[in-house]
Design brief:
The complex is a heterodimer of chains A (195) and B (165).
Chain A: E1 3-5, E2 10-18, H1 25-35, E3 45-48, E4 54-67, E5 70-78, H2 86-92, E6 98-104, H3 110-126, E7 136-141, H4 151-158, E8 165-167, H5 176-194
Parallel strand pairs in A: 2-5, 2-6, 6-7, 7-8
Antiparallel strand pairs in A: 1-2, 3-4, 4-5
Chain B: E1 8-10, H1 12-28, E2 33-38, E3 43-48, H2 55-75, E4 83-87, E5 92-98, E6 102-108, H3 114-144, H4 157-163
Helix pairs in contact in B: 1-3
Classes of the chains: A alpha/beta (195), B alpha+beta (165).
Chain lengths: 195, 165
């Protein structure tokens, strides 16, 4: 649910990075934070445990520039991936404008990906959303690891509807900005349709 | 009330009314900072000593706080906890939900008191509720007539691509 402020001429949109535990959601945000110019970003907030696992969410505000005289701001959030934090995940999806599903490409995480994607659909439905109607991107992360499932297989299992998907390696930054760009673009196109 | 998928829209007229109201509340409650946040974490308005504050982060964490306590409330069979109060050594934060939709945050120190803040917030909440209801009505009228004077109807692919250059 975007926030359009005619008084300050700003558009604010919320993007949520979803996915199984340790798939690289926080690393996505950290890479974006590290590579963004100082004047285009706010402070990155991580509510994490002592072992640096996300406890509630990570938050990164980004200012992308102007469209038709409106400052465009994106608020990026991650959810805690661990299964037992489901109550927190539901809260973070409130008011979402676009979702990035970060899949862990490692063979042994295949089931975790499927479970997390089902969980995403369930939690969105509980909030009155349908994933098919939301701007949605799938990122196949950790493509640099040796035990990766082939993309074709991941696509078959996680992306039967053929939404835009990308390969990435969050640790080195490959595909990270491409993912952000893809979801931001969809959100803005959605805003255009909605208006 | 707006549905989950509808956008919150702020217009000049309502923004000015909100600013006048929270500036008055700031004076009358003797507080340091007041801000208004959407339940989804978007900052709507702020006044007071905000220059040394990261208002964007404050807005996001306040919404997270309200969401978490709202979850707690539901677990014990309450609809929501409409007022939260955090007491620090010097500064305190008073958080209240207005009209089920927006969050009013008042930061104050020893120059004020919880009693005074609660009293003034209660009065201001009623007026704020009226402004928000007007805003929602206005948004609904605009939603029924899509495309009317919307700045986004003519966004091109080039506009979007330019954002990332």
């Amino acid at each position: 649910m975007s926030f359009i402020n005619y008084a300050s001429r700003e558009i604010n949109c919320k993007i949520v990075y979803y996915g199984p535990g340790l798939c690289g959601k926080t690393t996505n945000l950290q890479y974006i934070y590290n590579k963004t110019a100082q004047d285009a970003k706010g402070k990155m907030i991580s509510l994490a445990t002592e072992t640096e696992r996300t406890l509630f969410f990570d938050f990164l505000p980004l200012a992308l520039g102007e469209i038709r005289g409106f400052k465009t701001r994106f608020h990026l959030y991650t959810v805690p991936g661990q299964v037992f934090y489901d109550a927190s995940r539901k809260l973070i999806l409130k008011g979402v404008d676009g979702v990035v599903f970060v899949a862990d490409s490692q063979e042994e995480r295949l089931d975790a990906n499927i479970e997390s994607l089902e969980n995403l659909k369930d939690n969105l439905e509980e909030q009155g959303y349908q994933l098919e109607k939301l701007p949605f991107i799938i990122q196949y992360n950790k493509r640099d690891l040796p035990n990766c499932t082939p993309v074709e297989e991941l696509r078959k299992l996680l992306n039967p509807d053929g939404v835009p998907d990308l390969e990435a390696c969050a640790a080195t930054g490959e595909g990270i900005f491409e993912t952000l760009k893809a979801v931001a673009k969809q959100v803005l196109i959605d805003l255009k349709k909605g208006s | 009330m707006l549905g989950p998928q509808s956008s919150l829209v702020m217009y000049d007229e309502e923004y000015k009314r909100i600013m006048t109201l929270i500036e008055k509340l700031l004076r009358e409650s003797n507080s340091n900072v007041i801000f208004l946040v959407d339940k989804n974490g978007q900052l709507i308005a702020a006044t007071g000593e905000t220059e040394h504050l990261d208002t964007t982060s404050l807005a996001s964490l306040t919404a997270g706080n309200i969401a978490a306590t709202g979850g707690l409330a539901k677990l014990i069979g309450e609809k929501e906890f409409s007022i939260l109060f955090h007491e620090g050594e010097k500064d305190n934060i008073h958080i209240s939900i207005i009209g089920g939709r927006v969050i009013l945050v008042v930061i104050f120190d020893q120059r004020s008191s919880l009693g005074l803040v609660r009293l003034r917030v209660k009065k201001a909440s009623i007026e704020l509720g009226v402004i928000l209801a007007d805003l929602i009505r206005k948004t609904e009228i605009h939603d029924e007539a899509p495309g009317v004077d919307s700045p986004f109807a003519e966004i091109t692919d080039d506009d979007i691509d330019n954002l990332f250059n």
